[in-house]
Specification:
Layout: H1 2-9, H2 13-23, H3 31-41, H4 46-79, H5 82-94, H6 96-103, H7 111-119, H8 124-149, H9 153-197
Helix pairs in contact: 2-3, 2-4, 3-4, 3-8, 4-7, 4-8, 5-6, 6-8, 8-9
Amino acid sequence: MNEVMEFLRSFGSAGLFIHAMLDAIIFPIPAFFLQVSLSVLNPENAIWLATLGYVGCLAGTPIGYAIGKTSGNLILNRFMKKKWLDSATALFRRHGETAILIGAFTPIPFKLFTIMSGCMNYPLWKLLGYAAIGRAAKFYIVGILFYIYGRAAEHMVDSVLGVTLLVVGILLSAGWLLIRWFQKRKKQGRAAVQIEEQ
């Protein structure tokens, strides 16, 4: 894996795009690590690197989904750690949309959610929408930190990023659950009005 990482790093920003795309499909090392190492070398390009990583991830998401549709169960059981698979499956079954948002922030590899979405016939457009929100936050928080603080951000990433991503993930998930709750209440209100009118 180190040799593969070095190979991708040698291509610079194009290597990050490829890594991020593969990260959403099957590659076991998150693109975050390559993004950080390239941002340390060129902090002034950190926003551009975040953009390439983000676009690469979104480009790989439908491919991971298609793999999940065709042979997802076989791949997930063969290549992923059981604890990751079990926690991702449980989260996905209970809260599909929220699971994708949370999955974009947690150490659980995002490819689990792209492949799992295909396995469970989850709508691709929803997967892309939630991936767009979650992955944007993950890539751009790192990019902005390096752009503002330069190489000093490398130390901040270790201490601050985990907490920041967790807070953003919780806020996004809470906001999403609140919207769903209001939508549910609205539907119940309409149903009650219809029953009264009958």
